[in-house]
Specification:
The protein is of the alpha/beta class. The protein folds into two domains: 105 residues, no CATH class; 137 residues, Ribonuclease Inhibitor (Leucine-rich repeat, LRR (right-handed beta-alpha superhelix), Alpha-Beta Horseshoe). The protein has four helices and 26 strands. The strands form eight sheets. The protein has an eleven-stranded parallel sheet with strand order 2-5-8-10-12-13-15-18-21-23-24, covered by helices on one side. Strands 7-9-11 form a three-stranded parallel sheet. A two-stranded parallel ribbon has the order 1-4. The longest helix is centred in the first third of the chain and has 22 residues. InterPro entries: Leu-rich_rpt (IPR001611), Leu-rich_rpt_typical-subtyp (IPR003591), LRR_dom_sf (IPR032675). This is Leucine rich immune protein (Coil-less).
């Protein structure tokens, strides 16, 4: 009888422990900071690879922010967002996750706006066949060397890739991005931009390619009918190949050409086309800071 009573007491204790553990499965609820009004900001929190997140309850909020950017925050590190967490953030449509040492992230279909700038980000993981709704994507100041994920994001409207590690790029990746109106590729290491056949981006209004290493830019297959601003300043360009300005960029208003290595004959022919359309070649950088050149056309140096 004593043995039976002892066994019963142990069973009851085990049951209580099991209930307690079950009750705490999502027992660590992450609270929104009071620093922001419209966003749910989470700080003083760390996520690393292989971390068990089952005990955490994440806020069900449409606009989530990890960290306190632009203010310094040494308490928040989100190194990765894996599939487990991505599945639990399906109700989040806008995510800010700057300056938290992010490296990799699985994208979820309902996310419409992502600002993951100022990290160590190098891999955005997408799954084929998914209907991604992402429209605004800021990946500036990161470590991307490849952007193959763009092919899975047909709803993109703005893409900011300033200050990454891109060395070459095929614009054919943007074949499906027919909603794209602003593309910023400035301050990379781009040496070549290629296109497989004709490329038509009907809404692209701004294309920023300044501060790269381009020596040749072949835009002869581009049909950017709504392009208004093109910036190719501070590259190594000798000539810009186009079918005709009015054919490739019929609505062009602003073209920045300064701080390149233009061949004078080609530059003169391009500027004549621009004049016919009422477009003036512009200097993006302060001319006082530029090296003196012996020959200039519309204040753009050539050699």
């Amino acid at each position: 009888m004593i043995l039976g009573a002892e066994m019963s007491r142990n069973i009851v204790l085990c049951f209580l422990v099991t209930v307690a553990c079950g009750a705490s499965a999502y027992g660590r609820k992450l609270e929104c900071s009071e620093h922001r009004e419209m966003e749910c900001e989470i700080s003083n929190f760390t996520i690393v690879e292989s971390m068990d997140l089952s005990e955490y309850e994440f806020p069900d909020h449409p606009h989530l922010a990890f960290g306190t950017y632009p203010h310094s925050d040494d308490s928040t590190y989100v190194v990765t967002i894996g599939k487990e967490l991505a599945d639990r953030l399906q109700s989040t449509e806008k995510l800010e996750i700057q300056n938290v040492s992010l490296q990799t992230m699985v994208l979820w279909t309902n996310l419409r706006s992502l600002d993951a700038s100022h990290n160590y980000f190098f891999e955005l993981i997408v799954e084929p066949g998914q209907n991604y709704q992402l429209r605004e994507l800021n990946l500036s100041y990161n470590r991307f060397q490849s952007i193959e994920f763009v092919q899975a994001l047909p709803a993109l409207r703005t893409l900011d890739l300033r200050h990454n590690y891109l060395e070459s790029l095929s614009f054919s990746l943007f074949d499906m991005a027919t909603e794209l109106w602003k593309l910023n590729l400035a301050n990379n290491r781009l040496q070549t931009i290629s296109t497989d056949g004709s490329l038509h981006l009907p809404r692209l209004s701004t294309l920023l390619l300044h501060d790269n290493l381009l020596s040749v830019l072949d835009a002869s297959e581009w049909r950017f009918s709504m392009l208004q601003e093109l910036n190719v300043a501070r590259n190594r360009l000798r000539y810009l190949s186009m079918c005709e300005v009015n054919h490739s960029f019929p609505h062009l208003q602003t073209l920045y050409l300064d701080e390149n290595r233009w061949e004078c004959g080609h530059l003169n022919a391009t500027i004549r086309q621009l004049h016919q359309l009422g477009v003036k070649a512009m200097a993006y950088y302060d001319t006082e800071d530029q090296e003196h050149c012996n020959t200039a056309i519309d204040e753009i140096c050539c050699y």
